Amino acid sequence: MSSTSFKTEFAVYMTCEHCVEDVRSTLAKVPNLDRYDIDLPSQSVTVTGRAAPSVLAKSLRETGRQVIIRGTTGSGGAAVAILEEPFTAAIPEWHSKEFTQKVHGIGRLVQLSPTQTLLDLTVRAAVLRPNKTYEAYIARTGDLSKGPDGAGGVLHHLGEVKVDEKGYGDLFVEKDGLSIWDMIGRAMVFGEKGGPGLWAGVVARSAGVWGNTKTVCSCSGKDLWEEGRDMEGKMESDVEAQLQSSL
């Protein structure tokens, strides 16, 4: 918790006044808040107080809605990493009309201050087990030609990730001493703690995501909710396929 109040802005998927009331009642239970403003037309929630952004994000997601942190007072940019299976594992699929690697997670990074970065990591796959401990880290390089373990090893440890019985896990954490600009171009790796990396993605700058309230990517023209649902859909379909193959 910060010793001084600061402002944090979130994009929260809301469609009606009932959604607004759910968000309002949730924030009313969070300690150390000075005020919060909820705007339905822009689907934005702005919070002022001393509570950590990770605490706010967790509380807002407990309403069952999509939540994306846009930034905080003095924030300095954002980045994203799409966690995919190793390239070599997907090569047999080249015979299909559209070659795609399976997506198992996404990591979002927001620079909260010159010396602190917020990580919002979500993973989902049937192969993950709740009795195992997983971790995420930033590798020394962004070279994934030899898979996650070929990216040079751990440069910055991001934290441990717990998963549920459905193979879903997430991590919200503020990391001191980390700068987004030092992570861009390097790989974010996810895997079992002390074991080989399972999935990885290169960290890329995503200032457009946080600076534009309507569109994530000018290429697809999709808004952030459509992109989010597409990402969740890819992870969900991969989980279902893995479950079916194990029957």
Automatic annotation (TrEMBL):
ATP-binding among keywords: no
Highest rank taxon of the organism: Eukaryota
One GO biological process term: superoxide metabolic process
Annotated transmembrane regions: none
GO molecular function, one term: metal ion binding
Names of the cofactor(s): Cu(2+)
Keyword line: Metal-binding
InterPro entries: HMA_dom, HMA_dom_sf, SOD-like_Cu/Zn_dom_sf
Domain HMA: 5-68
PANTHER family named among the record's database cross-references: COPPER TRANSPORT PROTEIN ATOX1-RELATED (PTHR22814), COPPER TRANSPORT PROTEIN ATX1 (PTHR22814:SF287)
Family: Belongs to the CCS1 family.
Protein name listed in UniProt: Superoxide dismutase 1 copper chaperone
